[in-house]
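Quick start: what a row looks like.
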Amino acid sequence: MATRHEYVSGKPYVIIVDPINKCNLRCPLCPSGTGDLNRDRTVMSYQQFTEIIRPFIKYAYEISFHNWGESLLNPEVFKMISFAAQHNIASNMSSNLSITQAGIMGEIVGSGLEYLVVSLDAASPEVYRQYRRGGNFDLVISNLRSLIATRNARGSKTPRIEWQFIVMKHNMHEVEQAQTLAREIGVDTFRLIPVGFPFGVKNLNDLRREWAPDSLPMSEPIDSTCFYLYRSVTINPDGGVSPCCMVPDAKYDFGNLLSDDFENIWNNDFYRSARRLFLSKTGTGCKIVCNSCTKFRKMGDVSS
């Protein structure tokens, strides 16, 4: 797929579907947890999902079932995952796994989910609760053990399970202990990622001082074209289309798949203006959220 054009004839093949933007945790660096998510709190229905995803079936190879909420709180999410599996589309999900629904481990394994990322940034309840506010460390560990036992008992190789540990100032000292616990439990992958901060936050320096390890350098923009604008699409629970997964405000959406065809959205003024940021030094032509993005290095005049 060409990645250096304003108009794109190819289609996105990595689909991010947020099945619910409600969460049971109150993480202090997440717009959903802090109450700063400027979107109606919505649960996508299975019917809406199938209506939204059908145009992508021919060329999508992966669907990520997560973004602003805890996906397992959507009672129809497993039907969505099974729909993807039936159409030979890979699936992954991120979860805090601080969930108490009976029988849910069997549903996870039986749904056809291929990869599950469990957000767990501690090796003790005391450290866990500092960031994963409202969660239960012991419950997450118990659920991890139960999920792996269920997968093994069924002779299934999926989902592959990743323990994802966000490295922050308050939990750095537990990294090694967490790695040891992950091996003992039997997760497939243990991954460390640096702490990130909300898009467009005004008190960034204060947040960095509170949460970022002193050794964490200031991140520089990626010196390449934004891949989201060419190979991916992010779909919110209300059908809203965002240019990427980091847009917490619905007013910056580029369209809505419940009221318009994707063909009309993919190369509309918003998308073409966003791509223009990386292609020339001319103005974007309209106000878009990408103007203030710090993740990728832009060529365009972001003041327009």
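That is the whole record. The first helix runs from residue 31 to 34. Residues 300-304 have pLDDT under 50 and may be disordered.
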